[in-house]
Amino acid sequence: xxxxxxxxxxxxxxxxxxxxxxxxxxxxxxxxxxxxxxxxxxxxxxxxxxxxxxxxxxxxxxxxxxxxxxxxxxxxxxxxxxxxxxxxxxxxxxxxxxxxxxxxxxxxxxxxxxxxxxxxxxxxxxxxxxxxxxxxxxxxxxxxxxxxxxxxxxxxxxxxxxxxxxxxxxxxxxxxxxxxxxxxxxxxxxxxxxxxxxxxxxxxxxxxxx
Length: 210
Description:
This protein has eight helices and seven strands; from the N terminus they run αααβββαβαβαβαβα. It is of the alpha/beta class. α6 crosses α7 (182-190). The protein starts with 28 loop residues before the first helix and ends in a 7-residue tail after the last helix.
């Protein structure tokens, strides 16, 4: 599988084979992270209007409210390069054909300059589902993987997420997960993702009524 064009940024070094994609453990990391967080907070009120306008436009491309987008930037220092959706989060129905709610499909199609990623049900076939979404709904996903069982321990949840991100070399702290369950939020935290958002928060109130 080819790497995502969003897998790295100018000047960024990609971790080599054997790296677990975890945070660096060199001395002083905690202080540097604190200093970086403080510096970002101090910068926020001084941002030029043009930068704010660009960020508002980028939030629109990602289907996010600006405060949510700004919060992710503040927390990770990275732009968003992908969204990892669960099947339940996007209201995916499996019968003879795959079906998505119209408003959900439209929002997914409108995503710009980031990857769409899918976490299929534990008993599903991720690649067959990805192919069906492309053929029947005309909605492409860059990668898909199988979710663990709902009560799976955190290492299994983290491994399932990394199995989707790693082939594309996507940094987990630049990918947002959209889901519906508390366990999924815990997996996202364990995988050090940029953010976990409930489906009803991202897609609107209609998501909660599916």
